[in-house]
Structure formats: C-alpha cells, structure tokens
Amino acid sequence: MEPPTVTLAPSKSMSRQQGLLPRGTRWYSNFKVPLDLQAALGKKMIRESLGTSDYREACRKVVYERARITAIFDNERRKLLVLKAPPAKSEKRLLTVISEREAYEMAARYLATFEHTFRKWMQAEGRFLESNELEEMRSNVQEDEYHLARGEQFQGQPLDGTHELQNYLKGQNIECPVTSPAFQTLRPLFFNAHLEYLGRAQDMLKGDDVKERNHQFKGVHFHSTAMVEEQKRATIDDLLALRQRTIKEFKLSQKTADASQLTARLLREFFGGGRQIATITLEDMHQLFDLLKRVPPNATKRYKGMTLAQAVAAADKAEDRRRLNPKTLRNNYIQITALFNLAVDYKLIAENPAKHKRLSRSFDDNADSVPRQQFTIVELNQLFRSPLHMACAKGQERGGRFWVPLLTLFHGFRCNEACQIYTEDVKTLDGITFIAIREEREDGSKCDKRLKTKQSKREVPLHPELKRLGFMEFVQARKRDASSPRLFPDLKPGNKGYFSDSFSKWFTRFVELTLGEKCDATMHSFRHQFRDATRAARLPAETVARLAGWEDGEGPASRQMNHYGRGPSFLRTLAEDIAKVEYPCLDLSHLHTVAGA
Question: Which of 321, 338, 364 is the last residue of a domain?
Fold first, then answer.
C-alpha cells in the first residue's frame, strides 16, 4: 500500500488561504484579534493547531475555524455592548439587607465599570496627551491612592468607601440608609474596589499591562461580563412559574399545586413578585416565618380582601387567638424550602436561604407532636348505626355516602380515590376481586380521575367485609346502568374538580350530627386507622405501601427491588394480607346482606 500524499506547502497554482500558518511540518490557524477585543480575550492572536500536515486538508479546516473564531468575536462584542447600554430607570429600591455574595458582585461591577470607563477615555483622549501630562495625571492618582489607603479625610468626610458607595447607589436608583446592615456590608467592599481601581488606572497611564493587586478582585476587569453585565435575575414570580412548569412536566397532581397556594400568596405579599430571589437572606426567611406563625386559619375566607399581614392585625384586634396548626406550619415550611431547593437545582441561587437547622427546628418542635385524631370503636359503631345506615339496612338504596367511608376504612383509600371509582375499575382476576386505582379508563383513554402521586396507581383486593356488606351486588347493579360510568354518580366534584372537597365537608357535618362537636376525627382519619390496623396485623411495610399507595420508606435500591416479583400470585398474597385487617369489636352485622353473607 502506498503512503498517503502529504502536501506540506501550497504549489504556485494554489492560492494561500487566509489564517494559515506553517510551523515545522504542521499547519496552524492564525487569526489576529481585533483591537477592541484584545483586552476582553486577553490576547492579540489566536493560534491553534489544525492537526494536519496536508495543505489541502488544512485549507478545508481553516474555513470552519475562521467561522468559529468570527462567532467568538461577535459574541464578545455583544457582551461589551451591555456596558454601553444605560441602565433602565425604575422606581427607587430600598436596600437594607444584602447577602455577602450580592454585595461582592455589586462592588465588582463598580470596579469593572470604572476600569472600563477609564480605558475608553485612554483610547479616545488619553493617548493623545503628552508624556508629562500623563505623568502628572498618574501622580495625582497615586496621591489619591495614598490618602485613601491611609484612611484620611477629605472635606471633613472619612475616605472609607462611603463617598464611592453613595455615588454608585444614587446612579443605580437605590436607597440604602447609612445605618443599615446592607450599607455596612457594602462600604468596605467599595473601599477596596476603589483602591484597586486607582492602582489599575496608574498602570494604564504608564502604558503597562493592568495588574491585579487585591486577590478579592482577581479576574474582575472591564471585560468580565459575569461581573459587569447586569443580568436579569430570577424573581419570586419567576420561581413560582418554574414550579408550575415542574408540576406539569412531572405530571404531579393538581392537589399538589393547590396545596402551595398559601405559600405562593405568602411569598408574593411579603417579598413582592418582583423581588430577586438572590437577594433573599436567612434573616428575611426568619421574618417571613414569623408572619406565617401568626396567620389565622382560613384567612382568605374569614378576612376577605385583606393581605395576610392585615389578617393577622385584624385577628389580633378581634382577640382571635386561633392560628395555623403545627402540621400546616410545617407543611408550608417544607413547601418553601422545596421551592428554593428548586432554585438551587436550576442554578438561580447558590444556596437555599430557608434551609437552616435553626429554622427547621422551629417547625419540628410542635409539628406532628399530636397524632391525627381517630375514631374510637364506640364512635365507629355509632357512625355506622346512623339514620343513614339504618335506612340502608332496611332496604334503602346504598350510594356513595354509604360506601365511601367503608372503602376508606377497610382499604386505606384516600377520600378522592374512593369517590371517583368507575364501575369498570372493580375487576376480577384468577378469582380475586380487586379495585384498580388509576387515572385512565379501561381502554387507556383519559378521564377526569386524579391521583395524588405515582405510587397512588395500584390494584387493591376487595376486603371480605365489603363482600359481606353486599358491595359486589351494588357493583353489578351499577354496571347494568348505562347512564353513568361512575360507581357513585350521586357524588359531585367540588369547584376544583375534586370529589373529596364536597364529600369531606358533608362528612364533617355528618359526624357532628351523629357524634356531636366533641369528635375531632375527620374523613382522613380512616386512612390513619387503616395504617394502625395493618400494624396490628403485622403486615410487611412493602405490602402496606402497595395497598395504600405510599412509598415504602426504603431507599432507591429497595424500591427497585420491589418492582420485581409481582406476578399472578402477588395479587393473591395481597388479598390474603388485606383480609387480616380488622377492627375488633366493630359490629357491622346489621348491614350485611343475604347475598354477601
């Protein structure tokens, strides 16, 4: 095989490509950096190997290299245009607290802008001055640097950065009281930034390369767009919109979105939708949560038209001592922490201002300390002997209000899961009757059913007690009725589309009428009682999680393991396990049917 031909140099018939440079036997791209970009890129030439000794191949490669380098030049010019654009005027912003990171970036922008302005002057006018004039200017700057470094006074004012900071804030339309924590954080940074600028100005006046003196500002120059460019920072509104997109992207339930309404309202009212999240500090979070802990329950309805702060004031004036319960407070703290975790994940902020041990502990002390109130066996027996149930025992049609509490008690269903069941969701496989908790129809089409989490989708064998109560006869009757695909067409959804909203309200009234106001248990209490019953039956955590639609609490490896081995026998195992769930001394025999017995 003959070796490939290598063209080391162009022949006379070949035209020399622009940007090609031979070095030894290799070809390099060689492009001059425009004068206005040399400082930004830190070099006068861009020279890179093309990885070939063949001239023809080098000609082909240099065309693409030229396009790439041109794009780099264009991009750098766009960055520098930011410096020429005057900042948009807006309403004066009050600044009282600031993070160290934000303060540093503000001082860095000050330094970078001053260096840029001085360099522009040097290029436009300074280079035409005589050497003695330049030396006189350098001497004056050096003297300013000397007085500033010694902390001397000028016109009765200390040279400590106050003058520079106040001028900068005025130009940015920011009001920052001298006594505020923000001013005290910024002042020494601006002192150091101005001192650094004076040193660099002397370098430019001497015609030397600019040297960095203070390690604080290493890499900060007029072409440092990361510092100079006043980027649009994410605001509270941006963050809340991001959360909504995340909810849609991961197909989280609308219930999850609705649960954060108080959180969104609190953040918007306290900080304002336009507040940049990067400026929110730990102290801000403490003040936010102090307000949250004083918010009365149902503030939107009870104090209509008021902000949360106004609702707090109105409640105090009316001597209304009711406040959000510890669990609600804890949930809102978790919501806010998760929201700012999202901002960290998307690189909108460096760290979460709400994620602090001291804050977390303030919500841990009381949260969940009192378990959710449950029905006693005596109360359960009273409930299921109410006029409603006794009428059903005598032959009155059994509808959703009869079946839903029983389904939740014996299967651990969430209220909405039980209310929205379709008749086709009650199925039989290998002799095992089960209820498919799912969002879609049997044919895979979408419908208006909703699930809270991914784990909510499951198949739950029917408890034997429901069979004794005649549930299957009820299902068969519903399947013969083509007027509605729903198992409980008598139940109606609430304003937000959840059946649980209206059903839970009815059930609360039902409990008060049947048991009196002394009972604090709710519809959701049945789900807690089911969990206690599974503990008493010593069911494995995996089984309980599968039945009730919970995560099993194990790590990712365990969850992955639990995806395996769910063949035909698994449903039978679940049926055997759920049959062990019982409530000793609960007597429902008066509701049993002849066919179900």
Answer: 364
